Amino acid sequence: MKKILIINSSYYSNISKHLILNAKKKLIKEKFKIEILEVPGVFEIPIAIRKNVKKYDGFVALGCVIKGQTPHFDLICFSTFNSILNLSIKFNKPIGNGIITALNLKQAVQRSKTLKKKKPNKGSEAAEAVISILKNGPKKI
Q1: What are the residue ranges in the chain where pLDDT is below 70?
Q2: Residues annotated as catalytic (active site), given as ranges
């Protein structure tokens, strides 16, 4: 059984709880073993992945960054996303990126809640990305 670590930034806990629920639902449905690790903010997600990279088959990164009045948003998002990508490539492990980047709280809430419409939330999308890589290896053309 493949093991997945969900790393959740708890900074916006009202947002991330919905992301976790949807990611877990998707992974459990596909019979993956899941563990969850809480970190204070999204900036800590890459180091949490790096510390656990040999213990798991894949990772789901969840959290939220909301733009403020300073360049902090751009710096945090760029460095975190780049670090996640680099870890995935370096260690050949799938990392689903379910970190919401929003201009305001309303946008973040819309992207985190389960909607009855066709659009899934970012937690389930990130889980689906990891599932896709782990279950559907390369295809012959």
Answers
A1: 114-119, 137-141
A2: 72
